[in-house]
Amino acid sequence: MPDLSILRVATKILMPFLFLFGFYVLFGGESSPGGGFQAGVVFAAAIILHRLVFGSGGRINILDSPKLLLLAAAGVAVYLGVGIAGMSGGNFLNYSVLHETPQNGQAIAIMLVESGVAITVAAAMIGIFLHLAEKGK
Amino acid sequence: MTSDLWILHISIMVMLIIVAIMILRVRRLMAAIFLFGIFSLLMAMIYLLLAAPDVAMTEAAVGAGVSTVFLLAALSGLKRFEVSHHRHVIEHMVVAGAFFAAMIYAFTDLPVPGSVDNPANQNVSAYYLQHTQSEIGTPNVVTAVLASYRGYDTLGELFVIFTAATGVAAISRRGKKDA
Q1: Burial tier of B28 (Cβ tally within 10 Å: 0-12, 13-18, 19+)
Q2: Rounded CA separation B128/B144 (Å)
Q3: What whole-number distance in Å separates Cα of residue B18 and Cα of residue B12?
């Protein structure tokens, strides 16, 4: 059984920075390359790293399969909610009517939509990995 | 290609061909999985050289990162870790060679990458580039197109990812019920 102490300490130090980088990619997607899909994969990579190093006894074990599906559905629901909120003034997914100025409406909607995408992508990636990891046992 | 980085383009493309041939010829599956990760990393560099940083970031994160971990996790559930070589190699190479020749012939008709009067840069793309600053206000045109102009398509992509997660959860639950 290999000694994982260095990996465990390094992962514990790295986890906040990985999440911070994920949020940076998510919210920086408006002015620099990035966006929802990339941020979701970075979040999933952080959780997968924790699961690889600490095994199934780590404290992020609360993310089991039903909760992950709920998270994935919540991301899609955020996207659909933004779309339906646009119907109050215009068509479905019309972002310009969400605020007084169309540009602010677009900014708010793009931020919400990218967050929804990141949540769903992260939940899907973590769910697929947990299924593959269980199967190998 | 008149860019200054044409040596980099050529060398990365040669490395891609070498890695692809190695993936086919190697026997141990774990080596093949790592070669897939290297292939994805080289593709991410190509995307960066073609001035597509969003795609490069996604390819590096998904292909060279998470996908390699998925393949390794799937490999840990298998019983055999080596594959034998294929038979009918000559027929496969003839078909692949014919396809390759057709692609090379079609490649000579493609427009110069990044040229102003490309068909891809007229009509809708020109509208997006000219009106993103006034209508949407975000500096990143890729995000503006993805999330706002083509938001309906991104919603469809999100549905596809959600369906993948639901499918995996259904398979996982059935396995647990049988055990």
Answers
A1: exposed
A2: 9
A3: 10
Q: How many residues belong to chain A?
A: 137
pLDDT for residue B92 is more than 80: yes
> What is the nearest CA distance from B42 to chain A, expressed in angstroms?
18
- What 3-state DSSP class applies to B28? strand
The DSSP line for A57-68 is GSGGGG--HHHH
Q: Is the ipTM of this complex over 0.85?
A: yes
Burial-class residue B95 by CB neighbours within 10 Å (0-12, 13-18, 19+). exposed
Rounded Cα distance between B35 and A14, Å, is: 26
CB of B135 less than 8 A from some CB of A:
yes
**What is the greatest pairwise CA distance in chain B?**
62
**Which token pair is A45?**
């990579």
Look at the block and give the residue holding tokens 């709920």.
Answer: A70
Q: In degrees, to the nearest 5, what angle opens at C-alpha B164 toward C-alphas B159 and B168?
A: 145
The answer to whether the Cβ–Cβ distance between A127 and B61 falls below 8 Å is: no
Helix H, strand E, coil C: the string for chain A is: CCCCHHHHHHHHHHHHHHHHHHHHHHHHHHCCCCCHHHHHHHHHHHHHHHHHHHHHHCHHHHCCHHHHHHHHHHHHHHHHHHHHHHHHCCCCCCHHHHCCCHHHHHHHHHHHHHHHHHHHHHHHHHHHHHHHHHHCC
What are the structure tokens assigned to B54, written together? 């969003």
Inter-axis angle of helices B29-49 and B53-61, nearest 10: 170
Least confident residue range of A60-69, B8-17, B30-39: A60-69
How is residue A76 written in tokens?
């899609």
Nearest residue, CB atoms, A65 vs list B142, B158, B169: B169
CA–CA dist A125, B83 (Å, integer): 28
Whole-structure pTM value: 0.87
Two tokens, residue B21:
């041939």
